[in-house]
Amino acid sequence: MTFDPSYKEQALKSVGTRVLRPDGVDKVTGRARYGADFNMPGQLVARVLRSPHAHARIIRLDTSQAEALKGVKAVVTAADLPDLTDGDTALFAILDNSMARSKAKYDGHAVAAVAAINASVARAAMKLIEVEYEVLPHVVDVDAAVAPDAPLLDDTIFTTGVDPAPTKPSNVANRSEFGHGDVDAGFAKSDVIIERTYKTEQTHQGYIEPHACVANCNADGTADLWVCTQGHFVYRQVCADLLGLDVSKLRVTSSEIGGGFGGKTHVWAEPVALALSRKAGRPVKLVMTREEVFRASGPTSATSIDVKLGATMDGTITSALATLRYTSGPYADAWAETGAMTSFACYDLENVKAIGYEVVVNRPKVAAYRAPSAPMAAFAVESAIDELADAIDMNSVELRIKNAAQEGTRSSYGPVYGPIGIGPTLDAAKAHPHMSAPLGKNQGRGMACGFWFNFGGQTCSDLNIGADGTVTIAVGTVDVGGSRASLSLIAAEELGIPYEHVKAIVADTSSLGYNDMTDGSRGTFSSSMATISAARNAIKTLRERAAMMWEIPVEDVNWEEGFAKAAGPKHGNRAPLSIKDIAAEAGNTGGPIAGHSELVADGAGVSFGTHICDVEVDPETGSTRVIRYTVIQDAGKAVHPAYVEGQYQGGAVQGIGWALNEEYVYGEDGRLQNPGFLDYRIPVCSDLPMIDTQILEIPNPNHPYGVRGVGETSIVPPLAAVANAVSDAMNVRMTHIPVSPPRILAALNAQAKE
Amino acid sequence: MRYENPTTIENAVDLLARSDGPAYVLAGGTDLLVRMKGDDFDAELVVDIKSIAGMDQIVETAEGFTIGAAVPCAALGEHGALVAAWPGVVEAANLIGSTQVQSRCTISGNLCNASPAADSVPAMVAANARARIVGPGGARMIDVADVPTAPGKTSLARDEIIEAISLPKPDARSGDAYLRFTPRTEMDIAVVGAAVNLTLDDEGIVQTARVVLGAVAPSVVVVDAAAAALVGNKLNDATLKAVEAACTAASNPIDDKRGTVEFRNQVAGVLGRRAAEIAYGRAGGTQ
Amino acid sequence: MTSISVSTTINGDDVEFLCNVDETLLDVLRNRLGLMGAKEGCGTGDCGACSTIMDGRVVCSCLVLGAETQGREVETIEGMSDGRELHPLQVKFIEHAALQCGICTPGFLMAAKALLAAHPDPSEEEIRFWLAGNLCRCTGYDKIVRAVQDAAAEMRGANA
Question: What is the CATH number of the domain that holds C116?
């Protein structure tokens, strides 16, 4: 049966209610099992030896003493993970990042690993590994890396996307460009031009659970991996490719995941754990320390962004230009390109251009972080918009409303928008009591908008109906924030049964077809699509079985609110058959009843949000407190409103942390100075007010219930909203994130001198 | 590595004296255990002093308060008489770490860890606190200010232990205060700390004053110029300006991951001034 | 390294275990006693995910040596519910959607339990400062604070 994903307005019974999550009891009793909470018989403990240098050639690596230590069962280096990537540069980057080949490319880059009978022996073994380095010049700053005299990271990188192709290698891996119209002509028409350069520092996703896995390679070529991940099918594919395993013989089970925010979409040390297990012939548990998490996994890009805006005095933005430089760590990637695509996505612009430069530096390989690349671009653009509003003496909400994209607008990155939420979120912000609340001394208010694409992708789910009529659904998208609850609501809605009769689980890679990972805010969007499709397939079977039981044509059986009902007067007053009635007879009517679905979930609706932030700044110390915060975002349809609010609040607070205090601090030696939660300062409970939320529902036309992804957009506006609020409070423009106390005080001092 | 849990301080000292490798005293453990996690940590002996009688007691005497070396900082905040007498010392102690850390950490440990950024040390130095140190030759009293000598270093011999910290009974018209600057509201390390302890006469004129800065030099800085600016004066704008200027002038920090020289110098002045205002108010002075 | 024999009380039961000097209470709970509800988020006392209650005070079990628990009373998340009966804090955390990934939840529940034992009617500010040693990266804390407020009210009988 062809699945029709189009939106139909309907009264909903389950979807939109605030039910209790199915994994709640396990999680409040300590029984939920995360990455590090699994053990196998005979399991070894792994430790990874990491480079203390930001950039160094590995001259000599001697593991013989470590191998000879009693209790050590395996030591691996790059030689144990040979290059099977066959010219796939993205895959090679994962391999080289998991274990350095000829060069260590950042402080924390893995160079060897051991598996031993316990942690003490593993620690002792690490100290016995001899590594001789030739320290090379390094560069960590984005602007320094593009300077002509910068140390070159990789002489095989030639800037792509420029014509003619360069003949000299460069730290700029890629140039990308988006936009339309003629920006020069647009600036010529403008009355006012704002031109600024902004910087943002590198931040970490900061999930509380460190990366952890248990790997088990058997002698028969089969293998198992228990791991905390946002995408176990993707991990299976990558690990099988890197280790030369058959995909079908590697079974990956996703544990409960203790936060990911994009950081657990990438493979890190899992191939190393598998290689250790393969070499030792025993299961191996590898758990990163917090320091390793900071030094060697997942940060986002540091950026440097130039923005130029032109407008006429009536508030029409006549031209918009941005040049965005994003670090990607030591490997080429596409973070600047994504940033360039998102930069002006909120606005309807006649002339717009965004140019992205991907810059390699001696920092950890950049990972996705919640709406990756968008928050930095939004910080630059939304700060410039605020300044433009000041320059033409127009209210900043009005300026944004006047230029907001709407249905039919050609976006700055290409596509023409369908129904979208930027206008409604701005209207709601304008009308919100927060916007007109009085401010006290040293207080300021800022606002900003944000955009995220949202993804769909390959999805697959199974829906099985038990003999008692209760239902299990098996999905392949990892539940990072309550999707088992939302998918159960969706199944209950389609089938017309109570939520309590549905149990959702995340199946392992051997139990279900391929699923893309939980990224791009796709978990609930795509898996709900597959669940609806599976439920509709199951309903078709239920109707057939009812028809058999009644001995009437299936065309005369309707499915209404959990019951098969015989249609038309000719079948008399048959009592409707419940799902339980039909399930009980399944053995006599053709066997178990199930619905399956495999699809590509197209049409993920784009997402917009508008945030309002009040801060109070201590002008003598630069200390900033967020005192009120409001998130307004389009959800399409909020399946479980409490968890939608949770996504809004969580993203906003991550953004507040990024805006105020979080940053990677590197020393002159290129080593990370703050690889811990004490000096990498994510917000604590006492730093924050309650985070108010307002959910708007502008249905996504490409989903039966109108659902859009909701997970990521909320981190996009806060950098600018906070910086705009600080700028408002202190009357000094802040252009460098985080707006930490020393930066604020320095800006105030500079202003006082003028 | 050995773990010992002696019940007398003599026994504890003896264990330290006899150990033939690196030996550590364990009180709250909130610094020591973090160090133990390091791959390069090496120790022959850990001596837990929490089973020694009296170590977990706060004793109020005619002379003042004696705070055993194993008293967790949370207990300081629960001791009404101590809070009333030395609110600045207690608030400094209660700024260390989190609720969880407060349950374990001690002011003696904070002192012996000898971090330039230790919160309780400037407040203790301002309060003229003294440390009772026990070694093989018996006990001696020294000023708290003389315990840390450099970052991570103390004047204690390897077989000496702080048994208790003593705070004097405050004068009737006196007050103390401690303020620190951290980017977060909690769970943070002082970028600048400032403690003030002063006494007033009946007219509200400052008779004695101690102004002490933390986190702006290798060890705490006693700012005599700020104290001199206070003594003989009421707390008016001119006095406060002089305190601020003296604190900024005395600040001698480094640029590091937690703050810049410029920032610390400026904020040292601000916090010194604000702490003086609080202490003055607590002493009964009105501006 | 010689093992140390320790007798202690965990969740009301007498427990004996052997541990090495450098093993923390967290190591002992997770690796020797099978009590894996306490999580290691940092190992240095900065995140609170391993919070347990020892002799009535909430501590980071990563900052307590296993040997130090001799003769003490330790409460872990595994002992929080009374059989099938969840503690009011556990109920309210689920009801208020005060958890997303849930990795910090056991630590928050332990810290909140200690809070309500000391302050049955805490203000929002008291809750926020008491819980500042527990990091949560998912929720932005809003729903956690509300869940604690609601549980406190219920435990005081104020919800009746």
Answer: 1.10.150.120
- Tracing tokens 């501590």 back to the chain, one arrives at C59
pLDDT of residue B189: 94
C86 contacts A482? CB cut-off 8 A: no
Strand runs labelled E in A85-128: 103-104, 110-116
Confidence of residue C159 (pLDDT cuts 50, 70, 90): low
Q: Do C48 and C10 share a structural domain?
A: yes
Which of C1, C59, C132 lies nearest to residue B186, judging by beta carbons?
Answer: C132
Shared domain for C44 and C18, answered yes or no, is yes
Inside any domain, residue C27: yes
Task: Kindly provide the ipTM of the predicted complex, given to two decimals.
Answer: 0.98
**All domains in chain B, ordered by first residue:** 2-168 (3.30.465.10), 174-282 (3.30.390.50)
Per the domain annotation, does C19 fall within a domain?
Answer: yes
Q: Is pLDDT above 60 for A1? A: no
Q: How far apart are CA B58 and CA B54, in angstroms?
A: 8
Q: Does C132 sit within 8 Å of A685, measured CB to CB?
A: yes
Please report the pLDDT score of residue C160 as a whole number.
56
Q: Do A324 and A355 contact (CB within 8 A), yes or no?
A: yes
Contacts of B191 in chain A (CB under 8 A): 741
C102 and C55 assigned to the same domain: no
> Which residue out of A48, A684, A749 would a mutagenesis test of the B interface target, given it has the greatest number of B Cβ atoms within 10 Å?
A684
- Tokens linked to A209: 């659970």
Q: Could you tell me the residue range of the domain that residue C56 belongs to?
A: 4-79
Domains of chain A: 24-32+456-601 (3.30.365.10), 35-136+210-257+264-296 (3.90.1170.50), 303-454+605-753 (3.30.365.10)
Residue pLDDT, tens place only, A362-412: 999 999 999 999 999 999 999 999 999 999 999 999 999 999 999 999 999
Pairing verdict, β B130-135 and B64-68? unpaired
Q: Which chains touch A (3 or more CB pairs under 8 A)?
A: B, C
Look at residue C23 and tell me if it is in a domain: yes
Entry field: residues in chain B: 287
Q: What is the pTM of this model?
A: 0.98
Q: Which of residues 23-42 of C touch A (CB under 8 A)?
A: 30, 35-42
Beta-bridge partner residues of A566: A557
CB contact under 8 A, C133 and B101: yes
Distance CA A63, CA B142 (A): 51
Per-residue pLDDT reduced to its tens digit, A533-555 = 999 999 999 999 999 999 999 99
**Two tokens at A341?**
């695509």
Residue contact A259–C103, C-beta within 8 A: yes
